[in-house]
Amino acid sequence: MADIVQQRLEDRIPALEQLERVGLFTNKEVKSMLKRSTALEYKLHRTVQSKDDFITYIQHEINVLELIKKRRARIGYHFKREEIENPIIHRINHVFRRATTKWQEDVQLWLSQVAFNKKWGTKSQLSKVLSSMLAIHPDKPALWIMAAKCEMEDRNSSESARHLFLRALRFHLENKKVFQEYFRMELMHAEKLRKQQQELEQAKIDVGEYNFSTEILSGKLAEVVYRDAAQKIKGAEFILSLLQIAAIFDFTKELQDTILQDLQSQYVDDCMMWDFMAKRELDAAGAPELQSAKGRASDTDRREERCCVVYEEALKSLNTEAMWICYVTFCLERYKRKTNVTQLKEKRKERLLRVLQSTHDAKLLQETFYKNWLQVLLSSGDTVSATQVAITATQRFSQSVEMWSFSLQTLVHLESTEAGHLFQEALKHVNPKVESLPLWQLQADWSMTSQIPEDTETFFQKGLLSPVPAVSSAMKEKYLEWSYKTGGYKRARKTFTSLHEHRPFTKTFFMKMIEIEKEQETPKMSNLRDYYERALREFGYSDEDLWMEYIKEELGSHGNPENCGKLHWRAVKTLEGESVEHFTTKYTLLQTGHM
Fold first, then answer.
1. What is the domain range of residue 2?
2. Residue 47 lies in a domain
3. Which of 132, 229, 278, 402 has the fewest beta carbons closer than 10 A?
4. Coiled coil: which residue ranges (predicted)?
5. Where are the alpha helices (H) located in 271-380, listed in sequence order?
6. Model confidence pLDDT, tens digit, residues 394-428
């Protein structure tokens, strides 16, 4: 091993001498680099090799290259690159090859070598790395695409890129992304040739017998790719993605027309096709040079109406949920677009409400759209319709907690008399153990503000007896809060006393009672201690903040600082795991006045 390392170090000496001779590095820096390189070389030749050692070695050499580049720019010396940089680049590639041979499955390692060669290496080196990488990882389409792009953009070789895409399609016969990028590459190749032809014509250069192929210039190679892709991969969405790529280039009108004809003839039963055709009406030629805002708004309205006509035509033959979703989504997007013209805004709202009602009548309206429907009705002040839609939505999606919650919030906001009945219905339909808590909390808020005290009391007593721990705990908090608001301190304390032995509890329940006690003119420390002790009985083994609050209370004007030492001792004995360390840190900060 020592002989190999010595040989590697001797190979470095000519480049290091050159660095010192031309003034890029001092003698001290060269010695330091040699010492560091020696340590790294020995690590690479251990019996048990580590990937991190290889990465550290490579990063060190790249840092040297970056430093040389900065030093050259600073002193203005730009010679002898072959004698200085090239050996370092060759050495880095050699180490990369050793690493990728040993850890072939590490894609990131391969990509790092590609990135390095794109910045520092030669085009031929980059091509070799890509070929080696694809030989090991032919099952990854993204690598094929990246390699083809490198050939196209970095090496300026359309032919090599085409060969890579064709090889990729042998392994990935029906991969959409490979076909899309291959299609794009052929169009980019045609565009590049068209620019070359244009530049030659402008310069009036005679190219002799060489002629640019008209078919290639018009994108026929891309059309061949499209035909092949359309046979192997079905679906309007994929065809539309190719159409969108073709639309980027200004010479593809014939190709776009071909794709559009195939789309309309082969995918009549695909909602994506109809959605695209409808939205095309927005881009159709309109009235020329409309100056006034009302004129432009009127033209926009006509375009949107034409879109709706296409959607309506689609629904005659394709009355599916997916088609209705496209229609409603379009109307909703247009409704959300800002406009200062009131007439256009009202037209969009009417159109959206009409389509939502039609979709609902067809029993194909999704849950999310019911929420949008309610928001539109509420914003327009139509409380009667909003109430009706809210009730209907809960019937349509009776198992959805989100739908119940949103509809009930709407009814509560509208102060509807139907709210009380629907709260009861909601609790019957949803899963009580998993999803009922939000409904209980919502009903508690509504009952405290809208019902008479007797009915609210009955509701809380029912909630306290719930077999679901989360519901029972939450109702204790709400009940205590309501008792304080309606009956003051005495009633709150009576409520707390009646509940403080009935588990389960939450920390909030005890902290709420502590807050109530502290709000009194003369809070009793004995009561506060009782609340803290009860809270610690439930949560003292894991909540260091609770202990800290108790200690701060004893340090306050109503407490006894002598009790802090006892509380500290109890906390250290009671807390478990990392909580002990956290508590000790906080207690120390408190003692030193930093908390």
1. 1-103
2. yes
3. 402
4. none
5. 271-280, 293-317, 321-336, 342-361, 367-379
6. 999 998 999 999 999 999 999 888 888 899 889 88
